[in-house]
Amino acid sequence: MSFDTDALVKKLVMTDDIKEKESLARQIHAEAKTRGIFLASINDVYIARGKGQGKNFTVPAMNLRSLTYYLARAIFRVAKRLRAGAFIFEIAKSEMGYTNQPPVEYVGAVLGAAIKEGHRGPVFIQGDHCQIKAAAYATDKKKETASLKDLVADCVAAGFYNIDVDSSTTVDLSRPSLTEQQRDNFEVCAEMTRLVRKLQPKGIQVSVGGEIGEVGHKNSTVQELTAFMDGYHKSLPRGLTGLSKISVQTGTSHGGVVLPDGTMADVKVDFETLKALSAASQKKYGLGGAVQHGASTLPEGAFNKFPEINTIEIHLATNFQNKTLDSKLFPKDLYAKMAAWINVNCAAERKPKDTEEQFMYKARKRALGQFKKDIMAMPESVKEGIAAEIEKNFEFLFRQLNVHDTKDFVTAIVKPVDVTIGLRTAQAALDGEGDD
């Protein structure tokens, strides 16, 4: 009996029943295992790179906000052609909400794509920006930290074996020393690392990333990195494996900066700062290197510089969304419905000086979850056509970031571990938390 990947993924996306999503994701996962496809952590690859092993490459971590199955298929096609093994599928805490993609659904869609395109080997799925909300943290630290623990537990249970902890929102630049400025950041990050180590499946060392500078704010410094890492290591229980990478701020912002006419402002990355931060993280702390966020709207000529300066990972999201919604294939009537919904439901996000183009550009991501089923119900020719258009961009990025011909390097390091995915059972994943 043949395995109908398309039908299962469609049911997975279209159902509102989380238990049915879990059942479907498990069916897809079981089939993937029979075909040599396995969920994995990129931790050991990063540690090896930090030691100078292998060629210089920068791992693209790609946030798929819509048409996840179809865009993931395009990524696997590119990886197969280029013999690439170092690439990550990710979704942020905020994106899970506004795109209506819970972790177990995201995993099922990506694994379904791997099956459909004949992928073999590891699949890296990452929880991006598992973030502390600054305002909520200021009001009730315990409650906000507990909320983040819930999310991390959901992600690990679903098969996200790569977790980016973003507690950089707690950094307080008004404090007198760098250590005190970073204190809440490194203490929360250490607490989340301890939780991940408790929850990770036997045989898998989940890749955990920290963050020292919130994207869109002031650029990070080596001194801040040192204050964070020293404090983090003192806060981490003895014997636990720590971070594999560190995210920094070097001049970008999420989604880019849109001008009044709807075009994008030029963004410049401080490559010298990024190079220094990556080198310090590798040489002093044994990490894979520094991570660049908010990069998908950079000019095309910037991407080949990241592997040159040993950036370990780069996060890409908004441009894929833009290419989807701005495609000539995307139905105009559906886009009009989405725009009408945004004008009614996202009006509070409009700033006084925003033009219509600026407001729509910044707010339209909010409609992706609301219209997820409508997008999934588009004709196959439209969905596959949009994915084929964006596939060219994926190939460009893979080549510029030098991840072609990395499959052998990755598979020599990352070996399959038999795991079970699904929803965590109520509070079971967190039972006993704090008893260590």
Task: List descriptors.
436 residues; alpha/beta; TIM Barrel; eight-stranded parallel barrel; 11% strand; globular
Tell me the series of helices and strands, N- to C-terminal. Answer: HHEHEHEHHEHHEHEHEHEHEHHHHHHH
CATH superfamily: Aldolase class I
Rg measurement, Å: 21 Å
Integer tally of domains: 1
Strand order across the largest sheet: 2-3-4-5-6-7-8-9
Derived from helix and strand composition plus strand pairing, the structural class reads alpha/beta
Fraction of helical residues: 40-55%
Extract low-pLDDT stretches. Answer: 253-259
Shape by Cα distribution: globular
What is the terminal separation in angstroms?
48 Å
The mean pLDDT is: 92
How many distinct beta strands?
Answer: 9
Q: Under CATH, the topology is which?
A: TIM Barrel
Number of helices in the DSSP assignment: 19
Notes on the structure:
Helix 1 runs antiparallel to helix 2 (18-34). The protein has helices spanning 5-14, 18-34, 43-50, 68-82, 93-98, 103-116, 134-139, 141-158, 178-199, 222-235, 271-285, 305-308, 318-325, 332-345, 356-363, 367-370, 372-376, 380-400, 407-413, and strands at residues 37-40, 59-63, 88-92, 121-131, 162-166, 207-211, 245-248, 290-292, 313-316. Strand 7 (245-248), helix 11 and strand 8 form a beta-alpha-beta unit. The chain has an eight-stranded parallel β-barrel with strand order 2-3-4-5-6-7-8-9, surrounded by six helices. It is globular, with a radius of gyration of 21 Å. The chain has a single domain (5-331, 378-422), classed as Alpha-Beta Barrel (TIM Barrel), CATH 3.20.20.70. The chain is built from 19 helices and nine strands. With 436 residues, it is α/β, with parallel strands linked by helices.
